[in-house]
Design a protein that fits this description.
single chain, four-stranded antiparallel beta sheet, elongated
Length: 103
């Protein structure tokens, strides 16, 4: 499931930064609502989260195993402030280890 937010403003900005969201370990995802606050960031350009609470996810090891991406645009200093806020939100995500499924 792909959930995203897109803002048309900031498209002409020279300053942009994207951050891939990561799962610190494999497990069942929960507490994804902490990322809802990213929609209020003044530099938000795009937000895509491709998992939902209850999904089983692998540990993020590269961009292919990321759980989403947030793109920021605008004033350089404001981007770095908002980037730190995103990483703080990301640190509150919960990935409860799960047993492997039987095949």
């Amino acid at each position: 499931m792909l959930m995203g937010t897109f803002r048309r403003r900031n498209l002409c900005s020279k300053n942009r930064r994207s951050g891939f969201l990561k799962a610190v370990n494999q497990g069942i995802a929960s507490n994804l609502e902490v990322l809802d606050d990213a929609s209020e960031l003044p530099t938000l350009l795009n937000k895509y989260v491709w998992i939902k609470n209850g999904d089983r996810v692998p540990q993020t090891v590269d961009y292919l195993t990321s759980i989403g991406i947030i793109a920021l645009a605008g004033d350089r200093e404001a981007i770095f402030v908002d980037y730190k806020k995103i990483r703080a939100m990301e640190s509150k995500l919960i990935f409860t280890p799960s047993l492997p499924e039987f095949q």
